[in-house]
Amino acid sequence: MNKQDWLAEHFNRHRQHLQSVAYRMLGSSNEAEDAVQEAWLRLNRSDAEQINNLQGWLITVVSRICLDQLRARKPEADDAALDLPIGNQQGPETELLIADSLGPALLLLLDTLSPPERIAFVLHDLFDLSFADIAPIIERSEAATRQLASRARRQVQGAKSRRQDDTQQQHLVAAFLQASRQGDFQALLSLLHPDAILRADATALKITKANQAKGAPQFEAEMSGATKVANTLKGKAMGAMLSLVDGIPGATWGANGTTMVAFCFSITDGKITSIDVVMDRVRLDNMDIRLIEGPATEQGA
After folding, report:
1. Which regions of the chain carry the CATH code 3.10.450.50?
2. Distance between CA atoms of 263 and 108, rounded to whole angstroms?
3. DSSP string, 80-138
4. What pLDDT was estimated at residue 199?
5. Taking the CA of residue 251 as centre, how many other CA atoms within 13 Å lie in the half-sphere pointing to its CB?
6. pLDDT of 91 over the 80 cut
7. How far apart are alpha carbons 232 and 180 in whole angstroms?
8. 3-class DSSP state of 184
9. Where do the RNA polymerase sigma factor 70 region 4 type domain residues begin and end (predicted)?
10. Backbone phi, then psi, for 60, in 5-degree steps?
11. 216 Cβ partners below 8 Å, 6+ apart?
12. Is 166-297 CATH 3.10.450.50?
C-alpha cells in the first residue's frame, strides 16, 4: 500500500467524527465539509509518518480551520491562527451520536458565543476533550480555556431556560384560548391570577360596544379580578390565533391578512396576571406579530 492509499484509509476512519465536530462549530454542513476537506489537504502536505496521534492531530487541524472561519464572521483582533497538535483525544462514536442528537436548537444558541467560547464549549462539553488539549488550539492558558467554556455553558443554559419559559408561556396562552372557546369558566379561573387585570384600549372599547349585539365581549377600560375577566372572555376567542406579539406569547385575530386585534398577556409564576386588548391601528402596525404554528394554533369550533 502506497502512502496516499494509507493516508486515505486512515483519514476516512475519522471523517464522520471530524464532520460532526466541524458541524457543531460552524452550524453549516457545507462549511463543515469544506473544513474536513481542508484538513485532508493539510494531512497530505504533512509528514504523516511522524504523527503519533492521527485523530488528535486531525481534530486540532479541523478546530483551527473552524476557528478561522468563525473569526471571519466575528473578527477578534487579539486572536491569531496557529495549527498545534494535541495529546490523546478520546472520541468514541457514542460521543458523535450524542452530539448529533442535540439538534439545530443548540446551533442557534452556539451562534451567541464568541469563536473561542464556541470552540472551548464544543470540544469540551460535546466531545470531552480536556482543557489542556483545547488551550493550544485557541491560544489560551488552560485556566482561561476553562473560564471560556464555563462562560459559554452559562450562556447556553440561560438561553435554554428562556426558551423553556417561552414554551411554557405558549402552552399557558394556548390553554387559555381553548378554555375561552369552550366556555370553560373553571379552566379560565385556574389559569388566571386572582387579581388578574383586563385592559382594553379606546379603539377596542368603541368597536366592541358597537358590535355587542353580534356577541362581542363587553370590555371596560380596565377590569380586575379573575372572576370578572373569566366571565368577560368565556365563550370568546373563536378566531384568535396563538402568536408572538413583540416576541412574547399572546394571541391575535385578523381578517384578510391584517391583524385587527392583539391580546398581550403578562404571566408571572405560571398564572396570567394581565391581558391587554389592542385594536388601535397605529399600535398594531408597530407590533412585531408572528403566528405560532402547531396544534396550539387550532381555532376549534
Report:
1. 166-297
2. 28
3. -------S-----HHHHHHHHTTHHHHHHHHTTS-HHHHHHHIIIIIT---HHHHHHHH
4. 92
5. 26
6. no
7. 9
8. coil
9. 105-155
10. -60, -50
11. 207, 208, 209, 210
12. yes
